[in-house]
Amino acid sequence: MRNLPRVAILGTLIGSLLVGAGCSWMPFVGDKKKKRREDLDTTEEILYNRTQRSLRAGNYSNAIDGLQQLESQFPFGRYAEQAQLEIIYAQYMSFEHDSARLAADRFMRLHPQHAHIDYAYYLKGLAAFNKNRSLLDRLFSTDLSKRDMTAAREAYADFGQLLDRYPESQYAPDATKRMVYLRNLLAESEINVADFYMRRGAYVAASTRARFVVENYSKAPAVADALAILVEANHKLDMTEAANDALRVLAINFPNYPAFNEQGEFVLDEQIRNRDRSWTNMVTLGLLDRPEVPPPIKIEHPEGFVPPPVPQQEEADSKAKKKKKRGLFSWLPFVG
After folding, report:
1. Which domain holds residue 201?
2. pLDDT tens digits, residue range 279-325?
3. Number of folded domains in the chain?
4. Of 77, 90, 63, 73, nearest in space to 39 by CA
5. Is the pTM of this model over 0.85?
6. How far apart are CA 37 and CA 35, in angstroms?
7. How many Cα atoms sit within 13 Å of 222 on the Cβ side?
8. Which of 230, 226, 252, 248 is nearest to 239 (CA)?
9. CATH code assigned at 221
10. Closest Cα partner for 104 from 77, 122, 130, 79?
11. Domain presence at residue 27
12. Which H helix or E strand runs over 186?
């Protein structure tokens, strides 16, 4: 009878061992510990090859996890720098644009002399370039110039750094094209802001915005509109000389601007009628409360000045420049 407790205890221990051994075949028993032990025992080359397979398969989430594990387990290994560079790409492809930019900054700080550091600059710019874009923008032909331009300015600065530091980079041609697009987009955004100020009667603020476009985006197509805003804003501020200077620059550089009539006078009729309409005027279809339109503004050239001949431009070319890219659903009356 005295040996009965010992036998019971021994039997319980043996039963527990048998149950544990019997359940070990099940996939969800002990699997996590086994996987963790396998990850810790994985060699650098095996782990790197595994992440490469994930990248090629487009499984960027697993690739990011693997590259981060590779960097943490083998910080001084032969694939450590490459892993840091590929993390930027994987995060960019996963639409983690902010994380990609941070990873690019970290790589550039740790490896300023790396052979492929220009790729880090390029990816950083791409992450900012595509930050606020989606498939719907292409389908519905969204006007991106009416959005927040913070990401566009960051992308413009990033691509500019790439071209300044590595002008011979293989990514320089594409970065140049993207900078041209961003320059035109930023200039158009400034014109939208200036037009908003004109609607509110803030002519000084509108003039400042327009002057910024002329001074900083001198090759953008929106420069002509900026000069036109300068003419109108200065005219309404009774700054006749400044208005005439802007008008002369507009006439010399953009003689085919639509606001010029056949006599070469600057007509504000269309701009004002489309912008300064009151609710009464819109409700009555333009019959009542018509906006006041100043008479055509004539250019005053200095004595002895001979204006250059106006180049002949076909109407089709003019319309082609004005035509905007249309989306798949832009035919709908409420889109665009």
Report:
1. 188-307
2. 565 556 555 555 555 666 776 766 655 565 655 544 444 444 444 44
3. 2
4. 73
5. no
6. 5
7. 26
8. 230
9. 1.25.40.10
10. 122
11. no
12. helix 172-199
